[in-house]
Amino acid sequence: MSRRLWTRAPGPRLQPTIALAAEPEEEILGEGCLSLPGANLPVSRPGFAVCHGYNQFGEPIKVAGTGTLARCLQHETDHVNGIVMEDHLTAAERRDIHRQHKKVAKQYPSSWPA
Ligand SMILES: [Zn+2]
């Protein structure tokens, strides 16, 4: 059994899965990632998401959200599935986000994100 986990307040989500509407309404909002601090680009994602998983006690939990919360649920669950924000970008957008990051990278410790 694989172990997948992400944590953010109000607690961990173990084995998280995302449920999206069959025909989700997409929102285009600026999005960044702690892996590329200081950079962000508009990314299209469904505006509503439900994350199912388990808390630290093994109890099933569900978190639903719209807007920024929906975006965070999808972004973090993508990470535990090996998907990064760049996978949602075109090649030109990937070059752009790396350029943005390089401009400010020296402002962050080399151990970032620790
Ligand atoms: Zn990220």
TrEMBL record:
Keywords attached to this Swiss-Prot or TrEMBL record, sorted alphabetically, are:
Hydrolase, Iron, Metal-binding, Protein biosynthesis
Q: Does the keyword Iron apply?
A: yes
- What InterPro entries does this protein's entry cite? Peptide_deformylase (IPR023635), Peptide_deformylase_sf (IPR036821)
Question: What domain of life does the native source organism fall in?
Answer: Bacteria
What job does the chain carry out?
Removes the formyl group from the N-terminal Met of newly synthesized proteins.
Family of the protein in this entry = Belongs to the polypeptide deformylase family.
PANTHER family, per the entry: PEPTIDE DEFORMYLASE, PEPTIDE DEFORMYLASE, MITOCHONDRIAL
Question: What name goes with this protein?
Answer: Peptide deformylase
